[in-house]
Write a structure and sequence with these properties.
Two copies of one chain form a homodimer.
Chain A: H1 7-19, H2 22-29, H3 33-47, E1 52-53, E2 60-61, H4 63-91, E3 95-102, H5 103-120, E4 124-131, H6 133-141, E5 147-150, E6 159-173, E7 184-185, H7 187-191, E8 195-198, H8 203-214, E9 224-228, H9 231-239, E10 244-248, E11 258-259, E12 261-262, E13 268-276, H10 283-298
Parallel strand pairs in A: 3-4, 3-5, 7-12, 8-9, 8-10
Antiparallel strand pairs in A: 1-2, 5-13, 6-10, 6-11, 6-13
Helix pairs in contact in A: 1-2, 1-4, 2-3
Chain B binds a DNA duplex through residues 3, 21-23, 31-39, 41-42, 54-57, 59.
Chain lengths: 300, 300
DNA sequence: CTACCACATAAAACATTCTTATCTTGCATA
DNA sequence: TATGCAAGATAAGAATGTTTTATGTGGTAG
């Protein structure tokens, strides 16, 4: 109903008071000039009184505008104090956290998340071990790790889990490769190419095998050109023009390789956060799980 | 980018603290329960900390929640003070205002507007005279009225004006009349009916005549059954079954008569607010004109 | 157990706010 | 005065945000 006065509008208003120009505020705040006009109009409407006299070349706050400015500044001060206090409360959360993660989540998902968490709770010490999904789940179960991140959901009621991200395994090629500018390639076409696999025990390779197996394709019959020990080495080999690799979509951004799609097929899988089902958890663990759960929502 | 913390969310939060239940707050505030959940989530996201513990049957504020509550209350207090001070400033606008208005604006548009203005500026005394459009304009020009409302735009550069509302002259009949349930009637059909006109000098009658004249219809050839002296009497006569009247669409709501439409024809006109073009105007007049200009925007 | 109550989640409807494009006005310059 | 420029206003459509409706989930009491 009433649109409500929000911190953003008040900030705009303070900037107008400071800079004395709508356009300049717009530039400074990275929004368009009409957006500034709009916000001022909204404030004036909500308060039922003119705040800024813009009939002359130079704009001036009205008396009411001056009053609102004081309010906006008081408000900002309170807001700052609030921020500080909440910061403090977050610092109260401290201790050590031992995490296990499988390769893809550990290398491509966790680093950013842990950095944000660490910034939010500076007093926390985190150690993250990287292994494979099965090991992660076992170590969470036996309480070696307090939390784990893996590519397969755990079984049994002793462990709780939730999905943290979706992923897709996609074929990649060097930019000069014939497939580089094609949206889709057919499974038959792949068979004739120089393929680069991961070792058979890797989670990615196993997912690839089982996902293709579901649609009747047996990749064991495809003779790989190379078998490499990590996602990074596959990407490096592909970049060097050694052939076609299959890697997690999460791993390729910024690597310069080109991705394709297999016709009629999405090789998707999910990653999970796993922890022991218990009534009592440490405040730290609770905060961490909570953070992971809401991470996606609050970071784009 | 950030959605910003607005007064509405904080109000919801205070209500939650007071009532201890999302659902109840939803009922009380006339919104749905998911809307309440949503707002709390937004707050928690923005502040990056859990505010309400809702894992048990009864919900409790966390420490951070308690802190936010104090903030919300301080905020509300400041907001209240601001409201009071602005109120005060509005009261500083005082004096007398003499307004002229033609019939339709004077009877159907102004009453509500003046009531709202009066509430906002209690120290102002307003007198509104009702006459016809031409008189209104003349009296504004000679400074008898400070502002005028009329159905025709003024000529000459000494007067400023702007549109305040659009209107349509439409045929009306009693609910039992053969035209009552028809969307449209043709001009020919009208000619044969018992017609009720206003006197020839009325603004409505003149608009009717000129608007129909433009499409080649000369209503002087239509013999009216009755010629009445006011919009209200036309409506009364129509209600009594005396025939077909032509009145402003603004005048008929709640009167019980049925409106029709003349095929292929919209008899539209606008109403204007008129005042003298001067550099210096009284604060009262400025506030009044400003209010009228923004009235439409801020009241639905 | 089972029913119920309270909060969470999802999808779609709905509303607000922003951007782009264009207009108007005042002022400075020629 | 014309002419151009800079600042703000306005309009229409795009992009976001918020709410609703419908449904899921879990805890608690009977």
């Amino acid at each position: 109903m009433t649109t409500g006065m929000n911190t953003e509008y008040l900030k705009t208003f303070r900037e107008i008071a400071r800079l004395g120009s709508f356009s300049e505020v717009a530039r400074e705040m990275g929004i368009s000039q009409p957006a500034v006009s709009f916000q001022v109009q909204k404030l004036e409407q909500e308060l039922g009184i003119r705040l800024i006299d813009r009939s002359q070349k130079t704009i001036t706050l009205t008396k009411a505008g001056e009053r609102l400015l004081r309010f906006a500044e008081a408000m900002e001060g309170e807001r700052e104090k609030l921020r500080g206090d909440l910061e403090q409360m977050r610092e109260d959360i401290s201790g050590d956290l031992l995490i296990g993660a499988s390769t893809i989540p550990g290398e491509y998902l966790l680093p950013k998340m842990l950095a944000v968490f660490k910034q939010r709770h500076p007093a926390v010490k985190i150690q993250a071990d990287i292994s494979d999904s099965v090991t992660v789940i076992n170590r969470v179960r036996d309480n070696t790790y307090e939390v784990g991140f893996c590519g397969i959901p755990p079984e049994g009621k002793d462990l709780a889990f939730f999905k943290i991200a979706g992923d897709e395994i996609i074929p990649i090629v060097a930019p000069g490769h014939p497939f580089a500018n094609r949206d889709e390639v057919s499974p038959e076409e792949l068979e004739g190419e120089a393929l680069i696999f991961r070792e058979a025990t890797s989670g990615t390779q196993r997912s690839l095998e089982s996902l293709l197996g579901r649609v009747g394709i047996d990749i064991k019959k495809w003779a790989p050109q190379l078998v490499l020990g990590s996602t990074r080495s596959v990407i490096a080999a592909v970049s060097a023009g050694a052939g076609i690799g299959f890697v997690s979509s999460l791993a390729i951004k910024g690597s310069g390789v080109k991705s394709a799609r297999i016709k009629g097929l999405r090789l998707t899988r999910d990653f999970y956060c796993v922890y022991r089902q218990e009534r009592v958890v440490s405040r730290l663990l609770e905060a961490f799980i909570d953070f992971i759960k809401t991470y996606e929502k609050s970071h784009l």
